Amino acid sequence: MAEDNEDEEDCWDAFGSSSDEDDEGSDKDDNDEIFNGAGSSNASASAPIDTKTASTITLHLSQTFLKHNPQVRLSDRTVAVVRIVMGREASSDAYQNDNDYKCMVSKHLEQRQILVVHQTLELEHRQENFDEFISSKFAMLDAMTDALIILNDAKTVNRTLDEKKCDDDNSATFFHSKWLQVLTDSILCPGGIIIFSKSLNDEGTSHDFFDIEEKLIGSETTVLCSASTNNSDIIQWIARRKKLMRAHASTCPWLSSSHSVASEEERLHLATVSLSSHEMAASPIFSKRTASDPKKVRHSSRLTEHSIRKAVNNMKQYGYCILPGLLDTNECLDWGNAVLECVHDASKILLERDGVDIYNPQSSNFEPQSYREMSMREDLRMDLRHGPSLWKLRAQKEGTALAGGNSILLSATENRYGDGLFLRGHPSLLEILRRTMNPGSSSTCDDPPNQTDSKPLYLGNIGRWNFGGTGNNGSYQDLRISPIGGIVSLPGSADQALHADTPHLFEHIPDLPAHYINIFAPCTAFDNAVGGTAFIHGSHNLSFTAKHYDANHNTSFYPFLVRPRVSLGDVILFDCRILHFGLANTSRSTERCICYVNTWHDWFHDAKNWDKNQAIFDETTGEN
User: In angstroms, how far is CA 553 from the centroid of its own chain?
Assistant: First the structure.
């Protein structure tokens, strides 16, 4: 804990004074407005920021960063400062001067050693590919940002868009929503802060950017400060947070009309760890980097102690934990494509060899079975562990020693396997697994060790000396980690039945630690029609399921339902005792792949064993 306090002090030292005195003497000329032309009649002019406003915004960001994670230094935080310019306005002299970007708030942030990225977005009303546009504008970034500040006030931007709208009456509304959605979704971390100005005209009517995008931004609003403009408008500077995790509300149409998506997202918020940009891997639009440019080599995503403890606590309390943006998206796609290629190869072999059609099970000559490499869950849903493309990728990524796809042992004395092993080698994930499955060990820092008579309980576990064990030293127990596999749902697959993957070991204690944990990562792009995995929040606890169990139906569990809308790079860990089910794939052509690894105590035996089933492929040749 001493280390935590030291980090906390460093962060506060970086704040500087919260008063205006330190700044007033440094940049007197900047005390009025941030751009040449700010406050003028130009439609896209920015809202004025004086020293007091800049200081207030900077202090709010600094304090919020510290609250969310005191172990991430301010110098490791990134803030994007964005100004919106429409069409020909971008060519005017007032917007070409690089000094225009260096607004008052930027100077305050930089004094706190926060990295500030400035950008002007020159919007065209008929802009088509916003994703490529945003990617090109923020090419200097290697990851997402912790905060986003929009300098323009909403009234002037939206008024300009209305004046320039196309013949289609709906196009302006779509445009308002689209540029803002892509900007926020692309560059702002989940849980990140967005700061913007709201204009109140003399009739008290508000103009708010986010009136049109409530699904992406949380409803909680903090009014930072207010100021008057030359046009007698009142400008309020507002701070809001991007949602940590959204519910996949378009799934499960059978849910009761009384089901609350807002309550569901509150549960998701509790179970999701808010990661800083420093802890996350590259965003999809920033993940393509050239090895020749060392400045654009992304650091390996590594969680702070604060985030690891939060994840372990979530696993203990809720039975699952969500880590947004932890994995490299290109790595996810590599593994997802390998799994899907194996499914395609297997489908051809089974159709030709056995007359089994896994894509059209209703018209198949024979029912699909479970094979050595692939287990059929239901029609159009399968669990694939092995195949030629996976063997090839494992040899490439993990080395020939692990290419056979066997489980690996994570011993008590081993720190990690290395970053090259994707899901089963990520050091932060391994640490979360070890602590969750070994509470009270001498290595676990989440809680004080269990003690009796002032001595830790692990000293009494003398039997750990047997069979060459490490002894009663409180070290982690050995874990076993499966090879990477994939759960694939094909178009037309239905919702799974509610189930748990493993039973409780004993039935007289409600909250024994997890002995079997799964790690899930989406490895293909999802959309509204393609569901992921749904969970019953807290149902890993035996007393919870006993209380709500009804032998006739499962509706008593659904008030606790969560359907996380995960994206490429996100990770879900869950205790295999938790109730969950795969969501339907109602798309026409998207084959969904979620890659996974299973982790269990080395002493635990999983009764599910495919090794004696008929093989699809010949592992020595990669063929049938």
Answer: 33
Whether 49 contacts 30, CB under 8 Å: no
The Cα 613–Cα 624 span in angstroms is 14
Q: Are residues 220 and 356 in the same domain?
A: no
Q: List 381's β-bridge partners, or say none.
A: 378, 489
Structure tokens at 616: 């699809």
pLDDT at 571: 97
Residue 474's nearest CA partner among 437, 448, 440, 432 is: 440
0.70 cut: is pTM over it?
Answer: yes
| C-alpha count within 13 angstroms, C-beta hemisphere, residue 12 | 7
Same domain, 130 and 50: yes
pLDDT single digits (tens) 527-541? 889 999 999 999 999
Distance CA 524, CA 412 (A): 34
Number of H helices, E strands in the chain: 14, 21
For Cα atoms 580, 584, 587, give the angle at the middle one, nearest 5 degrees: 155
Dist CA 490 CA 517 (whole Å): 25
Residue 519 contacts residue 429 (beta carbons within 8 Å): yes
Structure tokens at 361: 């099970």
Q: Round to whole Å and give the CA distance between 226 and 200.
A: 10
d(CA 195, CA 152): 11
Domain with 513 in it: 268-285+308-444+478-601
d(CA 141, CA 285): 10
Q: CA angle at residue 80 from 74 to 82, to 5 degrees? A: 150
- Contacts for 603 with CB less than 8 Å, ≥ 6 apart: 477
The CATH number of the domain holding residue 328 is: 2.60.120.620
How many domains are contained in the chain? 2
Question: Tens digits of per-residue pLDDT, 219-259?
Answer: 788 999 887 766 667 788 899 999 999 999 999 999 999 99
Q: What percent of the chain is helix, strand and coil (3-state, nearest 5)?
A: 35, 20, 45
Q: With contact defined as beta carbons under 8 Å apart, do 460 and 436 qualify?
A: no
Whether the Cβ atoms of residue 303 and residue 275 lie closer than 8 Å to each other:
yes
Contacts of 28 (CB under 8 A, 6+ apart): none
| Mean pLDDT over each residue of the chain, to the nearest integer | 79
Residue 255 lies in a domain: no
Position 387 scores a pLDDT of 94
